[in-house]
Specification:
6 strands, alpha+beta
Length: 154
Amino acid sequence: MQGYEVVTIDDDKVGKVVGTEGPYLIVEGGTLFKSRHAVPRDVASIDEEAQVVRVTIAKELISDSPKIDGELDRRAVGDYYGLGEGFAAPETEGYGTLGADETATSAEVEGADDGVTPAAQQRAETRESLRPEGEDFAREGVSGAQIRPTSGTD
């Protein structure tokens, strides 16, 4: 596949394949100022007869991707294209054990431990504060009633 022309979904020529590295094609493009970019193989289809690699992304997406100067930064390229490879897997994945500095509590429980009022309780308190004194719509049988504060002008 080395030397194959790379063509985008818009029929723009991007450059030529100069190599591969893992799940990426290394594409070199430009006329005077050549640059190399990694393109995921998942977005490419190879036409052996025509010696063309067709990609399903736009030329600008490739030209704006991280340039390869020496070694391929797989994390930067993975982050750019939104691929899972760009992110390190958590240490607890699949094993069910926690590291020394990890907790097994939710953010809401941790917040409550630190004195933060849970969101559901904050909403209930806000609704209570907006309710006119002495009125209880739930007891009057009005379902779905909402209280809206007035601007003070009648």
